From TrEMBL:
Lineage summary: Bacteria, Pseudomonadati, Bacteroidota, Flavobacteriia, Flavobacteriales
InterPro entries: TPR-like_helical_dom_sf, TPR_rpt
Alphabetically ordered keywords of this record: Coiled coil, Signal, TPR repeat
Protein name, per record: BatC, TPR_1 domain protein
Signal peptide range in chain numbering: 1-20
Segments annotated as TPR repeats: 108-141
Coiled coil: 13-40
Keyword Coiled coil assigned: yes
Positions of transmembrane segments: none
Polar residues composition bias: residue spans: 249-262
Biased composition (Basic and acidic residues): 156-248, 269-294
Ranges where the record places region Disordered: 156-294
Cited SUPFAM superfamilies: TPR-like (SSF48452)
Any one Pfam family match given in the protein's UniProt record, by short name: TPR_11
Length: 294
C-alpha cells in the first residue's frame, strides 16, 4: 500500500516536472521570438530613419509576425503610414498595437494616435471616443486633453453644419413643392380660362344661331310672298317671255315693279297734260302779226 502511494506521488511529480519544463521551454521560445522581433524593429527604425520605407515596412511586418508581444512594431509601422498619409493602414496598425499593449502607457499612445487618424478623416465623434480612452490610460497627458477639447469643438461645428444643411435641404424641398403647387395652380387657371373661352364661344355661336333663327322668323308675308312667287315660277316655266307685270307678283304692303312703273307713267301723263294746257293757253293769248304792205 505504501509502495502504491509512493508510486502515484512519483508519477504526479514527474508529470508536474514535465509540464513545468514545457512551460519553461515555451517561455524561452517566446522570449527568443520577442528578442528577434525587437531586433527587427530596431532594424526597421534605422531603415526608416534612412528614408528606406520599403525595407522598414518589410522588417516591421516580420517583427510583427515573430511575436505577438511586441506592441512597438505595429505602433511604429502605424506611425510610418500616418506620416505618409496612409491613414487607413495607420489606423489598423495603431489598433493592433493597442490590442497587444500590456502597459497603460502603450495603450495610451495607441488610442491617442487612433484619435489623430479620426481627426484627419474628420470623423470627430470617433476621435472624441479615442481620446477619452487614451485619457483613461493616462489622465495627465495634456496633449491628449487638448486634442479631446479640439475634437469636441470640431464635432459641434460639424453637427451645426449638418443641421443647417438639413434645414437648407428641407427648405429647398419645400420650395420645390411650393413651385410645383404654383405651376399646378397656373395650369389649372389656364385650363379654366380655356374652358371659359370655350363656353363663351359656344354662347356666341348660340347667339348667332339665335339671330339666324330670328332672321328666318321674318314676317310671314315676306316668306309667303317669296314662296308664292317661287311656286308661280315653278308652275309657269314657259312664261319667261310674258310681260313683266304677269311674272312679278306684288308682295303685301310692298309695290311691285309694275305698280311703280304705272305710277311713273301716270305721273308723266299728268305732267304732259299740264304742259299741253299751258301750251294751249300760250297759243290762244299770242298776238298775230299783220303782214306789212309794201
Amino acid at each position: 500500500m505504501y509502495k502504491m502511494r509512493l508510486l502515484l506521488g512519483l508519477t504526479f511529480f514527474i508529470g508536474l516536472n514535465a509540464q513545468a519544463q514545457e512551460e519553461t521551454k515555451a517561455l524561452k521560445e517566446a522570449e527568443k521570438a520577442l528578442t528577434a522581433s525587437t531586433n527587427l524593429t530596431w532594424e526597421a527604425n534605422k531603415q526608416l530613419t534612412a528614408n528606406d520605407f520599403l525595407m522598414a515596412e518589410s522588417d516591421y511586418r516580420r517583427a510583427i509576425s515573430k511575436s505577438d508581444k511586441n506592441a512597438t512594431a505595429p505602433f511604429n509601422l502605424g506611425t510610418a503610414y500616418y506620416n505618409r498619409e496612409s491613414f487607413g493602414e495607420a489606423f489598423g496598425r495603431f489598433k493592433q498595437a493597442g490590442e497587444k499593449a500590456s502597459s497603460k502607457t502603450d495603450k495610451h499612445k495607441s488610442f491617442h494616435n487612433m484619435g489623430n487618424v479620426f481627426m484627419k478623416s474628420k470623423e470627430y465623434e470617433k476621435a472624441v471616443e479615442a481620446y477619452k480612452e487614451a485619457l483613461r490610460n493616462n489622465p495627465t497627458d495634456e496633449e491628449t486633453r487638448y486634442n479631446l477639447a479640439l475634437a469636441k469643438e470640431m464635432l459641434k461645428k460639424q453637427q451645426d453644419e449638418q443641421k443647417n444643411d438639413e434645414n437648407q435641404d428641407n427648405k429647398d424641398n419645400q420650395d420645390q413643392e411650393d413651385q410645383k403647387d404654383k405651376n399646378k395652380d397656373q395650369n389649372d387657371e389656364g385650363e379654366n380660362e380655356k374652358n371659359d373661352e370655350g363656353e363663351q364661344n359656344e354662347d356666341e355661336n348660340k347667339d348667332k344661331g339665335d339671330e339666324g333663327d330670328n332672321g328666318e322668323n321674318k314676317p310671314e308675308e315676306n316668306k309667303e310672298g317669296e314662296g308664292d312667287e317661287k311656286k308661280e315660277q315653278e308652275k309657269k316655266p314657259n312664261e319667261g317671255n310674258q310681260p313683266e307685270e304677269q311674272k312679278q307678283q306684288p308682295r303685301p304692303n310692298q309695290l311691285s315693279k309694275q305698280q311703280i312703273q304705272n305710277l311713273l307713267e301716270a305721273m308723266q301723263n299728268e305732267e304732259k297734260k299740264v304742259q299741253e294746257k299751258m301750251e294751249a293757253k300760250k297759243v290762244k293769248g299770242k298776238k298775230i302779226k299783220n303782214e306789212k304792205d309794201w
